[in-house]
């Protein structure tokens, strides 16, 4: 059986990725703070199983993934993929005006949770003859400094370096596991709405992001998800350590 574990499936890109994988007969295990009844009730070739978790809570995240791993080990697996999509953009604010609580949650969700999950994942399947495919969702903000996005850009840059290093290690270990980055660019999501609601004193580029919406420059999440899912369904074409962007296709 084919399985994919996807974080952040309650809405947006994560929900689109999960549904398209299910349409392709992949059984999806989704994680999010909120449920997605549309996915749970969908009559599609692939199944959907939901785990409710707050990725800012690392202890809860670790326990949840140990439960998922235990569940998967009871089933025959033909293909196993992990899509780490969940992320926070807040706090959108200049340094000096952020709370430690906000920063802690941000770093946990965007960087620490993916590191903990990847560590558990690679250890869990070390002795199984299952080539793993892992993808981390990145952002152009990882490569440029944006006023007010000091936390977001920093965690995405950290995720990029972490992904590159894991890819290097897997290559040296000759595991046949593959990990790569996917950049979805700008999409019409709740995160974009959150960005547009920021005060100019917090985020000086807010008018530019408002224009993305009014000028219809935000891609639909289904369109973006299809680019990624098409690649995931062709595992032979995936290159370990690759940086794959929606802009390469659309």
Q: Secondary-structure blueprint of this entry?
A:
Layout: E1 2-7, H1 12-23, E2 27-32, H2 37-40, E3 48-52, H3 58-72, E4 79-84, H4 100-124, E5 132-137, H5 150-172, E6 178-183, H6 190-196, H7 206-214, H8 221-232, E7 243-245
Parallel strand pairs: 1-2, 1-4, 2-3, 4-5, 5-6, 6-7
Helix pairs in contact: 1-8, 3-4, 4-5
Describe the structure.
43% of the residues lie in helices and 15% in strands. The chain is of the alpha/beta class and 250 residues long. Strand 4, helix 4 and strand 5 (132-137) form a beta-alpha-beta unit. Helix 3 runs parallel beside helix 4 and helix 4 runs parallel beside helix 5. It is globular. The model has no long low-confidence stretch (mean pLDDT 93).
Q: Describe the sheet with the most strands.
A: 7 strands, parallel
Sequence of strands across the biggest β-sheet: 3-2-1-4-5-6-7
Task: Classify the helix fraction into a percent range.
Answer: 40-55%
Radius of gyration: 18 Å
Our estimate of the beta-strand percent is: 15-25%
Mean pLDDT: 93
N-C termini distance: 31 Å
Order of helices and strands: EHEHEHEHEHEHHHE
Please provide the count of β strands.
7
Shape from CA axes?
A: globular
Are there runs of 5+ residues with pLDDT below 50, and where?
A: none
How many DSSP helices?
8
Question: Helix/strand/pairing class, anyone?
Answer: alpha/beta
